[in-house]
Amino acid sequence: MTGPTAGAELTPALEARLEQHRRELTGYCYRMLGSAFEAEDAVQETLVRAWRSHDRFEGRSSLRSWLYRIATNVCLDMLKGRERRARPMDLASPSTADAVLTPGLPEATWIGPVPDSRVLESGGDPAELAVQRESVRLAFVAALQRLAPRQRAVLILREVLRWQATEVAELLGTTVVSVNSALQRARAALAACRSGEEQQAEPLDDAQRSLLARYVDAFERYDLDSLTALLHEDATLSMPPYPLWLRGRREICAWLVGTGRDCRGSRLLPAGTANGAPAFGQYRSGPDGSHVPWALQVLDVADGRVTGLHSFLDTAALFPLFGLPDRLEPADG
After folding, report:
1. CATH 3.10.450.50 boundaries in the chain
2. DSSP string covering 221-249
3. Which terminus of the chain has fewer CB atoms gathered within 10 Å of its CB, N or C?
4. CATH number 1.10.10.10 is the correct assignment for the domain at 121-197
5. Which CATH architecture has domain 1-83?
6. DSSP readout, 153-173?
7. Mean pLDDT in the chain?
8. What does the pLDDT average to over 188-214?
9. CA-to-CA distance for 317 and 333, rounded, in angstroms?
10. Are strands 242-247 and 291-302 parallel, antiparallel or unpaired?
11. Exposed, middle or buried by CB within 10 Å (0-12, 13-18, 19+), for 41?
């Protein structure tokens, strides 16, 4: 953590105390903002503000609560006057495979993926970890963006982080009645906008690992019969920054043999998990036999099928974030 000298001296002990909260704060800011990069900026600003004013921190609340108060204010400031981020399916009806690919929209339009390792704690109670994973799913984060910023903060603090209403009221400088009212409105709005969303993600087990292995094999061989068999009948395909998205395995297959035919010969490299879901770096064939970055694929999987294929094309930003190489040489595995 760097910044101008101000307030309390940044001793190793103080830095360690602040840094131990970075991951959970990043998860909170990501849910608020819908962008891994903006979340990291918000957390950095939070820690710098905490460092600068730590000598005035009176300890009337815990350091963690104080940091969340700062992070909330940072996020609310960042959200002022801004359009909400979304997924392609939140903005328009599905297209057909023969639709013309229109120009991409600015990065600030879209919900972006985030590595689980940046926002989720490891270990702990499996049930609690499942809740945390579900709360960073792309669909859930997109639904959060439909809420007014303060409602968003209340819902995350109460429903995801399990804070008491009194704690949230103190953090926001409001009353318990106001917090409970905001929570009720947020729950109703969230339920309405998530109606008909995909099923809850299942834990990664041997059956899912087998499914993913078959998916990689079919995609790399470009065996569309095998690939189609792995897709749910109502599977979706999206490709931010393009607003176009498809629904149904027949449309997806038609796209892959049409506009998307240059994906033939791609290689997929595991990229861990993003937003509680398996992720892969997709590399397309280059002219010299190497493979170059094309997309970060995040797969929704449920009931033994792939239900969503989210291909994020901003590889210049996303591949370093996920620790993916900038090219695959012919002999690379």
Report:
1. 206-321
2. HT-HHHHHHHEEEEEEEEETTEEEEEESH
3. C
4. yes
5. Orthogonal Bundle (1.10)
6. HHHIIIIIS---HHHHHHHHT
7. 91
8. 77
9. 23
10. unpaired
11. middle
Question: Alpha helix locations (H) across the chain?
Answer: 12-19, 22-33, 36-53, 63-79, 88-91, 116-119, 126-134, 138-144, 149-155, 165-172, 176-193, 206-221, 224-230, 249-257, 315-321
pLDDT at 14: 78
Q: How far apart are the C-alpha atoms of 136 and 115, rounded to whole Å?
A: 10
Write down the pLDDT at residue 84: 94
- Give start-end residues of each CATH 1.10.1740.10 domain in the chain: 1-83
Question: What phi and psi, each to the nearest 5 degrees, are found at residue 302?
Answer: -155, 145
CATH of domain 206-321: 3.10.450.50
| Per-residue pLDDT at 286 | 87
Give residue 159's pLDDT. Answer: 93
Tokens of 159: 């429903």
- Tokens 């010969």 identify what position? 265
The pLDDT of residue 210 is 95
At 264, is the secondary structure helix, strand, or coil?
Answer: coil
Residue 7 clears pLDDT 50, i.e. is over it: no
Residues of the chain within CATH 1.10.10.10 domain(s) are: 121-197
Q: At what angle do helices 63-79 and 165-172 cross, to 10 degrees?
A: 60
Residue whose C-alpha is closest to residue 114's, from 134, 138, 132, 130: 138
Decide the pairing of beta strands 231-239 and 305-312.
parallel
| Tokens found for residue 260 | 């998307």
Provide the angle, in degrees to the nearest 10, between the axes of the packed helices 63-79 and 22-33: 30
Residues 275-324 pLDDT 10s? 999 999 999 998 888 999 999 999 999 989 999 999 999 999 999 999 99
306, two tokens: 């792939």
Residue 330 is predicted with a pLDDT of: 84
Peptide bond into 241 cis (omega under 30): yes
CB atoms within 10 A of CB 31: 24
